[in-house]
Design the sequence.
């Protein structure tokens, strides 16, 4: 129950001649005003509802009226509501009794304006206006002009009419289904239903030419439902009203529409807002709210004494978002200004702030991660590059050391070569003698082999000194052994320079993990530096001491001390800086490279002066974790 | 090296005494019996040149043949100017050493 159209349907009033009506219209020009001035009190407005308070359509319209009136007057208005319940109590005697009761009830509170919602309320108030609301302005709402004509509404009763324009509903459907080729129009068998069908035939005459059109009428509800199940998918279906089917069964139209929509294979449209939520996609309708607002505006004008005239409540295109989705129709095809009902706001619309913040946070994080990854890649590339540079620099340093030591290495090599030659020549002389001393020959050969081995060892050390690294060759070795090799390399140079080399080794092995060639280079750099330092020292013994020991905190320490002139105190801090040199021929890189190498292997290098003169360099390396 | 040179000289008919350092020579050698000294320049400790100078200081002017593994032009020039018999670079051919010794012994035989 409770559709707007219901307000029309129980009309039993004869339709008067059209000509007379027009005459009346002209005579009164449908313009009236509240005749009596309202003085010293707030205006009174009585709203008459045709049914009980449970009927949604009239109640919604009435609520819209009330809300608008209260808002516009700032609450300075007396609003009265009467639910006439005429559909359940249509007996004339009851209506009479109710009219008497209301007349008595409002005797001291005569309303200034009576709003009659629906045709039946209008008929009631027009019939009993003298006793109930003498002098009051009557505003009727919720039916169309032709109904007003039919019920012969008095000229001073102003109407807020609701005209149904079925073409607008059809056009809405056309916009949503531009590819539709079939048009079905559904109507019932009641008088009103037939009026609707006739109206539609007239109004849609042009529109329907573009479609294969069929009017479904004179069918039972079951036949309607069965027909609906066979609609081609490219069909537009317009449901008018079904108050009665061909078998004479009465229906509330929207319930009938619901049954048909349940089986329908194409979207259904209708001209009533009450059809929404009963399976139709939408239509061009007068909403309860817009009707209520229109009525309230008329009332306010009447209360201010302004002349008022018939108006038509504005129409709206209304659509059910769920149905749009069901039929795969696009929201974008809706006419501008269409009211969408039951529209689930999209996730973004509902939680736009949270979504935006989340998106922003995720975006920022992504950017940060990307930057960090890029940074890491760049750093790694830079590390690799710097490692390669370091290895290259170390190799250059090795070559320089080899160059500096080449003279002494050549000297060293000449020793075994010279011995071999002398031995060989001695042997050949011995062999030429009458009775060669074979025992001597044998000793000579043994010596030659040994000298050859010495020469080979020298070459090996030289090769080791020049070994180029593409990558660090990690290996575990005893620091003491490394000292032995380093001294052998330096021995020739030390002798040449008159430097006495002495060593003091820690008892037990000092295993460290590093690239042997690099650590050896550290020793050679410091040692050649020390020998250079002693070059200018005259009259003092030139002593180079290499010492290894295990420190208290379990680290391997190698100290290289000389008997030179020491390092000036103010230079101790900068001695490991690149390009620091005291020598005319030095590059100033030896100690700097030594420090870089030591730090690469997790160690430290320190320089200090000895109390007895000369400098001491200490290299501390972590012990290799064995096992 | 020492052993190989001794063997070489012995094979060529010379009597030899070998010392592994200048200090050992100074403390042990009977210089009166020595006719010629073959000296390595780079010895551990006192160098061959220094030993020669020392001997000169104490009036022992024996002919000296230097042998060396190191190329040092200054040292070579000084040694030759100072009157050494020969300055040989290791490894040297046996005949150059033998020839040098023979030439060292020659003036003495003329005396």
Sequence:
């Amino acid at each position: 129950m409770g559709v707007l159209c219901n307000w029309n349907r129980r009309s039993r009033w004869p339709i008067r001649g059209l000509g007379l009506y027009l005459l009346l219209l002209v005579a009164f020009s449908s313009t009236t005003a509240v005749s009596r001035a309202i003085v010293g009190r707030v205006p009174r407005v009585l709203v008459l509802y045709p049914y009980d308070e449970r009927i949604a359509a009239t109640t919604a319209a009435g609520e819209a009226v009330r809300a608008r009136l209260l808002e516009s007057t700032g609450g300075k208005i007396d609003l009265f509501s009467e639910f006439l319940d005429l559909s359940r109590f249509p007996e004339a005697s009851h209506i009479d009794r109710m009219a008497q009761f209301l007349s008595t009830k409002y005797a001291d509170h005569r309303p200034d304006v009576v709003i009659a919602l629906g045709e039946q309320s209008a008929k009631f108030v027009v019939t009993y206006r003298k006793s109930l609301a003498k002098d009051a302005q009557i505003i009727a709402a919720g039916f169309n002009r032709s109904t007003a004509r039919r019920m012969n509404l008095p000229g001073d009763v102003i109407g807020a009419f609701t005209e149904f324009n079925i073409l607008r509903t059809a056009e809405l459907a056309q916009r949503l289904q531009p590819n539709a080729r079939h048009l079905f129009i559904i109507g019932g068998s009641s008088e009103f239903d037939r009026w609707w069908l006739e109206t539609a035939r007239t109004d849609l005459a042009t529109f329907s030419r573009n479609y294969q059109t069929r009017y479904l009428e004179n069918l039972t509800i079951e036949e309607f439902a069965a027909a609906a199940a066979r609609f081609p998918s490219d069909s537009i279906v317009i449901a008018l009203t079904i108050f009665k089917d061909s078998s004479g069964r009465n229906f509330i139209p929207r319930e009938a529409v619901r049954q048909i929509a349940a089986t329908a294979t194409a979207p259904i449209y209708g001209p009533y807002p009450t059809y929404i939520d009963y399976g139709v996609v939408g239509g061009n309708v007068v909403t309860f709210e817009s009707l209520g607002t229109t009525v309230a505006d008329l009332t306010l004008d009447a209360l201010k004494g302004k002349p008022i005239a018939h108006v038509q409540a504005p129409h709206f295109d209304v659509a059910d978002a769920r149905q749009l989705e069901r039929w795969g129709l696009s929201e974008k095809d809706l006419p501008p200004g269409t009211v969408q009902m039951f529209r689930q706001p999209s996730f973004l619309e509902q939680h736009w702030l949270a979504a935006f913040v989340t998106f922003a946070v995720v975006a920022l994080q992504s950017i940060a991660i990307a930057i960090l990854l890029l940074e890491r890649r760049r750093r790694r590339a830079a590390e690799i590059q710097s490692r390669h540079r370091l290895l290259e620099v170390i190799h250059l340093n090795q070559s320089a050391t080899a160059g500096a030591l080449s003279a002494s290495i050549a000297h060293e090599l000449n020793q075994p070569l010279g011995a071999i030659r002398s031995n060989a020549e001695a042997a050949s002389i011995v062999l030429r003698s009458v009775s060669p001393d074979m025992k001597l020959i044998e000793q000579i050969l043994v010596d030659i082999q040994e000298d050859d081995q010495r020469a080979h060892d020298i070459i090996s050390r030289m090769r080791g000194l020049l070994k180029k690294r593409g990558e660090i060759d990690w290996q575990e070795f005893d620091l003491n052994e490394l000292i032995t090799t380093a001294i052998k390399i330096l021995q020739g140079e030390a002798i040449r320079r008159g430097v006495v080399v002495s060593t003091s080794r820690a008892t037990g092995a000092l295993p460290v993990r590093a690239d042997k060639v690099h650590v050896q280079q550290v020793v050679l750099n410091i040692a050649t530096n020390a020998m250079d330092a002693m070059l200018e020292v005259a009259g003092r013994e030139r002593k180079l001491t290499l010492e290894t020991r295990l420190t208290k905190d379990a680290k391997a320490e190698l100290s290289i001390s000389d008997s030179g002139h020491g390092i000036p105190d103010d230079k101790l801090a900068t001695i490991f800086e690149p390009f620091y040199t005291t020598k005319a021929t030095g590059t100033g890189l030896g100690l700097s490279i030594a420090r870089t190498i030591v730090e690469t292997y997790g160690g430290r290098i320190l320089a200090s002066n000895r109390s007895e003169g000369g400098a001491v360099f200490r290299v501390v390396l972590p012990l290799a974790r064995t096992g | 090296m020492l052993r190989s040179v001794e063997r070489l000289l012995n094979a060529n008919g010379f009597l030899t005494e070998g010392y592994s350092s200048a200090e050992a020579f100074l403390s042990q050698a009977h210089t009166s019996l020595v006719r010629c000294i073959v000296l390595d320049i780079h010895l551990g400790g006192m160098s061959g040149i220094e030993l020669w100078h020392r001997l000169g200081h104490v009036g022992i002017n024996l002919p000296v043949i230097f042998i060396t593994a190191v190329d040092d032009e200054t040292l070579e020039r000084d040694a030759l100017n100072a009157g050494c018999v020969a300055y040989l670079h290791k490894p040297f051919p046996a005949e150059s050493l033998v020839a040098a010794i023979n030439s060292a012994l020659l003036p003495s035989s003329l005396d």
Summary: The first strand of chain A starts at residue 44 and ends at 49. The interface with chain B takes residues 407-408, 410-415, 417-423, 425-427, 429-430, 433, 440, 444, 447, 451, 495-496, 498 of chain A (CB under 8 Å).
